[in-house]
Structures are given as structure tokens and as C-alpha cells.
Amino acid sequence: MSFWNKIKQIWSKYFSQIILAAVVILLGIFLMKSIENNMHTKHEYENNVIALTSELETWKTKTGELVAEKTILLGDIDLLKQTNEELYDQVKKLKARPKEVVYVQTEIINEVHDTTYVMDPGVNYMKQNFDFSNQFRTLTGFIEYNKPNLNLSFTQDIVKADFTVAIKDSKVYVTSNNPYIQYNDIQGVTVPHYKPKWSIGIGPALGGGFGLINKQFDFYAGISINLNYNFITF
After folding, report:
1. Number of C-alpha atoms within 13 angstroms, CB side, residue 97?
2. Are residues 106 and 182 in contact, defined by beta-carbon separation less than 8 angstroms?
3. pTM of this prediction?
4. Distance of alpha carbon 35 from alpha carbon 46, whole angstroms
5. Any bridge partners for residue 171, and if so which?
6. Exposed, middle or buried by CB within 10 Å (0-12, 13-18, 19+), for 154?
7. What would you report as the CA-atom Rg of the chain, rounded to the nearest whole angstrom?
8. CA torsion, ordered 117, 120, 125, 126, to nearest 10 deg
9. CA–CA separation, 177 vs 63, rounded Å?
């Protein structure tokens, strides 16, 4: 008996069992996918509750740099329209549809400078330059007294700051080399990246094995439907 005749014989003899097995497999796939989707939906909901209710946290690294940490929303950009329409409008102006959006609100609290200039009695004019610059700010100018007027002018007022932003597991981490930076708020959204546990494969198959029907080792060729579950993903 030829190989294809064996296939036809097995097909006709076990047709109902094969169809039943296929239906059971498809129902199992649908059920597992539904459970997986529900788990993802629950995870996003719990994450977004935290993102909308939690406060910004700050901590320092071993080298003394301040780090701001905040959970952001899980979803797509349209989710911003429901939670932060102003930020959503700003993103729309970019004419892009990014997968991550982070908004950081900061303020800079620089050093307080207090300088006293003493003028001799009878002086009607004086001009004194000042320079309060440091590694993170350039602040220069002059004070000019021309009796009875006193003029304060700034020639340079430049603030220098580098920011590093990282996103991991829907959490945003922001740090700067400028120690005078104060973080007030972090908001944003990131598209969830799920690695599916369940996978379906359909395609041609070649192989060999011991058959439970003919009780012998044989090679086979055909189309296979595979349902796989990944316990560990990389």
C-alpha cells in the first residue's frame, strides 16, 4: 500500500476523531488567548491606576546624582487624549505617532547671590561689573549708578543642564548633571511590549516517529498545526 493510500485510509477511518481533535485544539487556542489577553488588560489597568494616583519619587545614586522616578500609562497615544489632552495636543503637533511619550516638568533653583557695594560720599557715578558664574550657570552683568538713577543689567544668563531619560517596565527614570534641577512632575505613555506565551504554527511538516496505529516506525509528510506555550521568553 502506498503512502498516500495509507493517509486516505487513516483519514476515512478516523475522520470524526480528527475533526473533534481539531475543534478541541481550536477551542483551547481561543481560550488560552482570551485568558492571556485578559491578563494583559488587567495588568494595564492596575498599572494605569498607579500612574494616575502615585506621586513622583526621587532618590540619589551612589555618586550623589538625583534621580526622579514615575510610573507612566500603558497604552497607545490615544490614551493621552483621555488623561492629558494638553500633552496629547502637543504630541499631535509633532506630526508623528511615537510609541513613547514622556513629559518632564522641572524648575531650576539656583544659588542666592548677595553682594554689597559701598560708595564714597559725594560720588555721583559708579559702574561695577559682577560675575556669579559656576559650572552650571553663566550669570554676568553690571550695576551702574548715575545719580539719582540706579541701573541693574544682565549681560549673560545661561543655564546648562544635560538630561538622561530611561524607560523600563512603564517606569520613567530622569536624571541630570545639574544639581539645581528640581523635578515637579513626570507624565507620559508607553506602548506595552508583550511576548506572547502561546503561539500557533501552521505549515508543512516532515518527520518520523513510531505510529500508534500501524505499530511501526515510519516517516511522514503533511501539514501540521502546532500549539506551543513558552514558559521562558527572551
Report:
1. 6
2. yes
3. 0.68
4. 17
5. 71, 168
6. exposed
7. 34
8. -30
9. 11
At 32, give phi and psi (nearest 5°): -65, -40
pLDDT in tens, the chain (234 residues): 565 666 666 667 666 776 777 777 777 777 777 877 788 888 889 999 999 999 999 999 998 899 999 999 998 888 888 888 888 888 888 877 788 899 999 999 988 888 887 878 888 899 999 999 999 999 999 999 998 898 999 999 999 999 999 999 899 999 999 999 999 999 999 877 655 555 556 556 555 555 555 556 565 555 565 555 554 444
Instruction: Pull the grid cell for residue 137.
Output: 550657570
- Look-up: residue for cell 476515512? 12
Q: Is 164 helix (H, G, I), strand (E, B) or coil?
A: strand
